[in-house]
Amino acid sequence: MTSFLRKRVISSAIPLVFVVLGVFCLARLTGNPVDLYLPLSATPQQRAEFSAAHGFDDSIPVQLWDYLTNAARLDFGTSLRTGESAGSMVLKAFPVTLQLAGMTMLLAILGALLVGSLAAYRPNSLIDRIAGLLSMTAASIPDFWFAIVGVLVFGVGLDWLPTSGTLGGPEIWVLPIATLLIRPFGVLVQVVRGSMVGALSAPYVKVARSKGADPKRVVFGHALRNSITPVLTVAGDLTVGLVNGAVVVETIFGWPGIGKLMIDSILQRDFAVLQAAVLLTAVTIFALNILVDVCHALIDPRVRQAVPA
Amino acid sequence: MTPSTLPAPAGTGHPALEVEGLCVDLRTPSGTVRAVNGVGFQVRKGRTLALLGESGCGKSMTALSIAGLLDPTAEVTGGSVKVSGTDVLRLGRSGRRKLAGPVLSIVFQDALTALNPVQPVGRQLAEPFRIHRGMSRRAAREKAVELMTRVGIPEPRLRARAYPHQFSGGMRQRLLIAMAVALDPDVLIADEPTTALDVTVQAQIMRLLRDLQTERDMALVLITHDLAVVAQRADDVVVMYAGNVVETGPVAEVFSRPRHPYTKGLLDSVPEHAVRGRPLPAVPGSPPELSAVPAGCVFQARCPLAQERCAQERPRLTSVGASRSAACHFSEELDRA
């Protein structure tokens, strides 16, 4: 298992280097920050001073070298907007998004396992059809629409829930999580159902039933673990989507997460912050993929064995 | 088709398994078809009955309906299945579950897919003891190791922690058999237990089955398309064709003097009877689609003896001697030929 993990981490590190380079280059393509930050009336001397202060007057390779050596020391420069360290800004925003995404995925996976398994146990039953309809609808609703309607109905109309902000009790979580939840939940119900139907028709399930196993034992003792692999893969992808796509929800509900930070940084050419945010997101995505792989290996002994030590 | 009862085979006591007039319907996209039509037989403890037939003749479907493991698209529509005197078709789901293991058990054919790939085999072998005897994990595990020793798995204590893919095909089949006999069932159904194995391993597995059967005094239903296995291992044989029983009786008599042209055709097509330079004799044609079984005799289209009567009237399974029956209008003529 340790060697499995080591191999997996090393194989992720290489693409990560390309992400670091890619981020640097792309950020330079969005325009010159000097033009954006200084008024049109700024003198050439003022421009030169600004450039020198932030290192924009160096050649691109020198800028890249500085960026890389600093990044290796986890120093991502300072924000042009606030003067704060980019690293600390990103680290402050990140837990907000992580909490939101983590909570959402936990609920989505547990809910989908339950609903999907129930639907799969008797294909074409009433439960299956209702679950199919609901999950299809959930997977198709655009999140921004759901968020706006949610705010309108529960926030403004009924006044049950706050419309935005992160101050208050547990009720502040309801609308953001519900908004983020519906699509992953809908997709996962379908995935769980599909893979559970497959597992339940496998010969080993017939054998389990021939030993007198009751439905609970058949589903949770035998079929679930066999059907969870594709669910984890899809859940991993969806989580990546959540970490990135939190942009919409964070903007609508005013949550100071990484999505909002990224949008703001792009709009204001705040290179340092943008680079740090994208880099952290990329690291998270790689970490997530490793986590999914580790889960696969824990669940399926054949995966463990397929990786040479 | 009227349900048929066969004359009881030789032996004493109450039959461990008694099937009468079993009918199974299968729902397909193009309508409901009858997959098993009035099948009946009896097996006593310690005896072996072979269900013989081509793929799709309904022999596996018969086994699955006895064990209560039919897919939701199939349904038993008639007949009775008595296991040790209890009509299992009248039992509810939980009643059947209580019998599954201690009274009736089944060995499936493909041991790789029949064992759960993500569970150590020891745990799978311990499951019958956990379910039916309420044993602790530790006690059930000891039982599993005992079973593995009995069926000849080397280093059983160590191997109990291994997963199915870490065993050879023959070893997997041994594990599957061990699991099926864990609770000393009265009736053991073996659904083509050796099809996926090579010939030497086949022989070992058949020997293991025979030893376990003698040791535990089980009634064995052997489902197969292998005539050699039937000849060597079975006491009685039921020959099935397109969901119907066409001939039944003690193996030695049926094989030496078949009374149904299908049985005769099968026996003639064994390569030992072949003559060098001539094509192997075979039963011409192929079995009818279940949705297009003819009105008269099910075998008429491929039968060398077929006459007009066969197209109109389906022959009933009738007694053709002590403990023997055949479903053919011309079974007498066949015997004289």
Automatic annotation (TrEMBL), chain A:
Residues 94-292 form the ABC transmembrane type-1 domain. Keywords: Cell membrane, Membrane, Transmembrane, Transmembrane helix, Transport. CDD domains: TM_PBP2. It is found in: Cell membrane. Belongs to the binding-protein-dependent transport system permease family. It holds the Pfam family BPD_transp_1. Its main location: membrane. This is ABC transporter permease. It comes from Streptomyces rugosispiralis. InterPro entries: MetI-like, MetI-like_sf.
UniProtKB/TrEMBL annotation, chain B:
It is a peripheral membrane protein. The keyword Lipid metabolism does not apply. InterPro entries: AAA+_ATPase (IPR003593), ABC_Ni/Peptide_Import (IPR050388), ABC_transporter-like_ATP-bd (IPR003439), ABC_transporter-like_CS (IPR017871), Oligopep_ABC_C (IPR013563), P-loop_NTPase (IPR027417). Pfam families: ABC_tran, oligo_HPY. Keywords: ATP-binding, Cell membrane, Membrane, Nucleotide-binding, Transport. It comes from the Bacteria. It is found in: Cell membrane. GO terms for molecular function: ATP binding. Residues 17-267 form the ABC transporter domain. Belongs to the ABC transporter superfamily. PANTHER family: DIPEPTIDE TRANSPORT ATP-BINDING PROTEIN DPPD (PTHR43297:SF2), OLIGOPEPTIDE TRANSPORT ATP-BINDING PROTEIN APPD (PTHR43297). This is ABC transporter ATP-binding protein. It comes from Streptomyces rugosispiralis.
